[in-house]
Amino acid sequence: MRKYFEFALFEYKYALRYKANTVFSAVSDVLRFLVFFFLWKTIFALKGTGWGYSFNQMATYYLIVTFLQSNTPVCWNEFSLFIRIGSMVNFLVRPLNIYLLYYFRVLGSKFSFTMMSLPVTVTIFYFFRRFFILPHSIPAIFWMIFFWVVGGFIYYSFTYLVEVLGFWVEEVSGFSTIFFLIQEVLTGAIIPLDILPGAKFLELLPFKFVAYFPMRIYFGRVDTETILKNVFVLFFWLIVMILVSLWALREGLKAYNAPGG
Amino acid sequence: MKEVRVVFEFIKIRLKSRLIFRSSSITGFVSSGIYAGINIFVILRTIYSRVDSILGWSKGEVIVLQGVMMTILYLYRMLASEGVGSMSYFVEFGYLDPFLTKPVNLRVVIPFLEQKIEMLPRIFVGILVILYGLSLSCGALGFLNVSAFVVSVILSFFIYLLFNFALNLISFWNYRVYMLYSISEDLVTFGNYPVRIFGRIINFLFLTILPIGVVSNLPAKIILGKGHPFTIVLHQFGVLALMYLIVHLMWYFGLRRYEGTGD
Fold first, then answer.
1. Under 8 Å CB-to-CB from B49, ≥6 apart: which residues?
2. What is the pLDDT tens value at each position of chain A, 261 positions in all?
3. A43 at the B interface (CB within 8 A)?
4. What is the distance between the alpha carbons of residues B134 and B35, in angstroms, rounded to a whole number?
5. Residues 6+ away with beta carbon under 8 Å from B93
6. C-alpha–C-alpha distance, residues B75 and B73, integer Å
7. Which residues have CB under 8 Å from A76's CB, separation 6+?
């Protein structure tokens, strides 16, 4: 595992070079939050009840979900680009698992982003502190982070699978855009899943673990029994995604002829 | 006029070379359809299941607004986003030098250096969304509304282009600012809703210096009969002049900092 941590450390240091870019990225997240904040503020002024959430809960939901979303690992589109131009060979000839390699590289870069965007994050939390609701309990914070971290790996695996398509198709950016649009609904990043029509079905999918489900735990809306039940669901999806990811890579390599340099 | 001729030459060449990206057109069409579907059938459906209107905007009217925003965004992406986005690249690697030796106004030519014809189907999605929204809202369409709407959309396109160009001109001061693109994209999300919901200060900003409200809300207001077309178009001309002035000043002072390093 040490070699993967070395890669993560390298990406962490590399990403530190682009401070202005990171700050702009964090500002971009804040803008997303502001849209939903003002939208729901207006809607709650028109109809304050019947949503299953108070306005402060809704504001807290978007504030934290924005933070969780921007820090969830996503496989870079560099992956499919490297397949297309042949540079993937540089990784394939080394004793490395590229599924894990990219995960650790992304983690290193994300950690750097989290650190550098901290001033923006703290500022926005400070400005909206009067709307902010504290977590239900200390164990709730633990469970929330646990589901987000493991769910984040599952989420990464989905984005990785989109990139692996690069072994078979020339251009995967279109698929990647489609995936990112759909996941915003499935994770509950746009609207909490329990408000949406068809919520029961969406709750069966693993995407809820990166935003919606951790937030339900945060608000104390999930009992211990449901949490434990979902731990099993989480690990079921984790195993499925690891197996599918490794299989896809194996099959992709069979089809790969390493064009280019 | 020679700038216009140069721009049209660029467009002609690019259209031919980009025709190979047919699969990209299809996935782009699908993704813009999904984007519209999520906005209409997830977000707006959820919200409007419990309220009749948001600050005087019915569901159909907000759909028109979103269609206008989509149309202008994709029009910009098709015609100018590549050229505008290449500014930081030009500055970083010193590729602006060959352009500077040419006797043309680069503020006009650079935005139109490359076109992405594969974006065309997405524009149709935007137009379909507008038509769908109009079918839900009961507004009557007159000749004046429609013609003023077309003028307003064209003005919105140029305002949005100049706004993005101004953002990209920051590269004269800091060229590692790729994420500015993301900020501009996020501002589009604001343009999907009536700007009045964002409070007085943001509302003012969006109708002036951060002109996302001018770009989406004003053309939608014209087609929906929510304001006097002449006043709205005049407002847009004012903002267009402001954007041009900002670009002009940034270009002037930015070029002084440009060192032409690189190749």
1. none
2. 888 999 999 999 988 887 777 777 788 888 889 999 999 999 999 987 788 999 999 999 999 999 999 999 999 999 999 998 888 888 888 899 999 999 999 999 999 888 888 888 889 999 999 999 999 999 999 999 999 999 999 999 999 999 999 999 888 888 999 999 999 999 999 999 999 877 788 889 999 999 999 999 999 999 999 999 999 999 999 999 999 999 999 999 998 887 765
3. yes
4. 19
5. B261, B262, B263
6. 5
7. A102, A105, A106, A163
Q: A182 in contact with B at a CB cutoff of 8 Å?
A: yes
Quick one: tokens of B141? 């369409």
pTM of the model: 0.88
Q: How far is B2 from chain A (nearest CA, A)?
A: 36
By CA distance, what is A37's nearest residue in B? B198
Of B23, B186, B197, the CB nearest to A39: B197
- Is the predicted ipTM greater than 0.90, yes or no? no
Nearest to residue B10, comparing CAs of B159, B145, B112, B97? B112
Q: Which of residues 47-106 of A touch B (CB under 8 A)?
A: 47, 50-51
* A184 touches B at CB < 8 Å: yes
Residue showing tokens 């006029």: B1
Q: How far is B101 from chain A (nearest CA, A)?
A: 31
Residues in chain A with CB shorter than 8 Å from the CB of B88 are: none
Structure tokens at A58: 């809704």
